[in-house]
Write a structure and sequence with these properties.
alpha/beta, 7 strands, elongated, homodimer, 2 domains
């Protein structure tokens, strides 16, 4: 295999990059500014050393605890539960939330072999026990797995009567992924969150 | 800027990769097999050292002349003129052509400041003078720039009455890029190429 074929094959293993996109990217990389290639290669080679999960919320960070967990200006009575670290960034970009986050690391999906034991529910319970949370906002994806996960959270917290449990309002397209929602829809679904 | 923001911003400078795709790719790279990241980074960092233009046809290669130019089994009476190196790969994948190629390095585009002097027309003329070509197949894109370039080639070769000049048949969607055509359409447009 030539270096070009090798690069195209490697690129086409990225999510959402098919063989034609991979080919187009590879030809772009052959002709682009060499400094750009060195920067990109360096970023890719070192990203896993620099980024790790926050020991408190599970979001990706370069410092522990992450900037959100250690921000004294945030509302420590609200906890928003999301599936993935990128969902924190997406919700932050809506500008409609100033509380804390908890990243589960995925959603319950029996078909994929992902049960509650694979997600950070015990850390979530511990945070609720030791924290001062008044409201738990479930922001799992509006998918079957996200719905299952939301129901599971409500189930394990059924004895916490003092904790208000809410979920993002519909308005999010059903079956879609949270990270592809536009900011306005997302901000509205935060404002119109309903008791769950 | 954090390492993650830096990676997202660097990825979003790639063609066809918007901010959301860049973000999705970056999160994938954080979680993927570290060996994959090293392989991808290495491929990107070294691609420009390994790949260079063939001194005969201008296509990208790791050996000079390229495997197509040095293949004794190819028909040396046919020369197919394309805009970009990736067009050679695309046409090869159609399986409908067994002649040689000439890569112009682009198309004439006065609005982008690309005139005939920026493309390899003098090398093309030299190859026609010294070669044994009987047919020149123009396979520039079916766009305004590709059409202009095709007309220019016909103009500079108007005195070569013994050379049959053809162009890929229509069937390619107008305004599209050659590299996104499907193989069947491409093979048909090669078979039905018309005198130009």
């Amino acid at each position: 295999m030539t270096a070009l074929e090798n690069l195209i094959q490697t690129l086409s293993r990225l999510p959402g990059i098919g063989p034609k996109s991979a080919s187009r990217l590879a030809y772009h990389l052959i002709k682009t500014d060499p400094f750009y290639n060195r920067t990109l290669a360096e970023s890719i080679a070192t990203i896993q050393e620099k980024i790790f999960p926050c020991s408190v919320c599970g979001s990706f960070t370069e410092t522990d605890p992450c900037p959100i967990c250690s921000d004294a200006g945030r509302d420590r009575t609200q906890l928003c539960v999301v599936e993935q670290p990128q969902d924190v960034v997406t919700l932050q970009s809506s500008g409609a939330y100033n509380g804390l986050y908890h990243v589960l690391g995925g959603a319950i999906s029996p078909l994929d072999g992902i049960g509650p034991e694979h997600l950070s529910f015990s850390a979530l319970l511990k945070r609720i026990e030791t924290g001062a949370f008044q409201e738990l906002i479930i922001a799992t994806n509006p998918t079957e797995e996200g719905d299952t996960t939301a129901l599971y959270i409500r189930h394990i917290l059924k004895d916490w009567s003092e904790l208000s449990i809410t979920r993002l309002a519909s308005g999010l397209p059903i079956g879609g992924d949270l990270e592809y929602a536009d900011r306005i829809t997302l901000a509205r679904s935060l404002r119109q969150r309903v008791r769950f």
